[in-house]
Write a structure and sequence with these properties.
Blueprint: H1 7-27, H2 31-55, H3 60-90
Helix pairs in contact: 1-2, 2-3
Length: 103
């Protein structure tokens, strides 16, 4: 199925997904929504790597995707643990209301 659609369309879709994720990460206040936008950006990069690997008939893109997904899984586990801790301490996870560096 990947051969039926030109590779450029996959790169365009990847760019659109990355842009949506970047705008969401910059404009949102809720830390969980920011976290989801970062995950969307990682998935957009994964799509670009898979498309480039398929276009070049190489497995290098799949290898990079494997490492990116591993890092994303670790990020999800650690990030959610941090969000739970912040919510228990402050009662909110809004990024503009949580300021842990002030005494």
């Amino acid at each position: 199925m990947l051969q039926d659609i030109p590779h450029g369309f996959y790169f365009i879709l990847s760019g659109i997904l990355f842009t949506i994720g970047a705008i969401g990460a910059i404009t949102r206040r809720n830390a969980i929504v920011i976290f989801m936008c970062i995950e969307l950006m990682l998935n957009a990069v994964n799509l670009a790597f898979i498309t480039a690997g398929n276009a070049l008939s190489s497995m290098d893109g799949a290898v990079f995707v494997f490492f990116i997904m591993t890092v994303a899984a670790v990020e999800a586990a650690v990030g959610l643990a941090i969000f739970i801790t912040i919510f228990r301490l402050k009662g909110t996870i809004n990024a503009d209301e949580v300021n842990l560096l002030k005494g």
